[in-house]
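Much of our argument rests on the idea that a fold can be written as discrete symbols. The record that follows shows the chain in one-letter code together with its fold in token form.
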Amino acid sequence: MLLAIDVGNTNIVIGVYLDEKLQKSWRIKTDARATADELNLIFRSLLVDEPKVTGISLCSTVPAVLTELRKMLAKSFQDVKIVIIEPGIKTGVPVLIDNPKEVGADRIANSLAAFSRHGGPCVVVDFGTSTNFDVVSEKGEFLGGALAPGIEISLEALANRAAQLRKVELSKPRSVIGKGTVEALQSGALYGFTGQVDGIIRRIVDEIGPLKAVIATGGLAGIVVEESETITHHEPDLTLEGLRLVFEKNR
């Protein structure tokens, strides 16, 4: 059984694969202060009824968590092959930007999985702490992209800075014209971020031509997908699939 671990700034997504099939996944809150022992307890509780782990594939955008995960994995999974997406690991994704070391490992995993499933050119829109636009060429190269403030942190910042506004659930309002503060905030967030996505995708198309796919992933993708005019696929487990593919390339 392959254990795939995607450590993001907000959540850690964990998936288990048997062969090429994702059997189960979990999403837990990222705590940059968590120790190796605490992480061990969490992983052991999740995997208690699962088959024996025979491989682990990992990516992280949080250095403090990655450090503790290394300790935990070295202690608790000593005989298991571990692949961490970092310099020196085969990904099959040429990174064609000014400084390849700047690219988050999750963006590489997403690009690999998107190209493997849909070919290129394509774009991955990852709705997380930030909204990432990852552009993949027709040859599977990572060309770069765009980074925008994430939906959740934008709503939190608005609530913190405006005395009469508050954080609201991101859901579809009755109409674009909100009839109260909550609906007005929901309208601005949902249609504002949807418009942002569609606008950036159209500009990418203007630069590189037609796309084979625009894939949405990440914890907050679901509601935007329904309103977007440019997103063609919703694949919540795209990063986990990328981790599986990287593991296969480094057997």
Summary: The CA atoms of residues 155 and 161 lie 10 Å apart. The two ends are 14 Å apart (CA to CA).
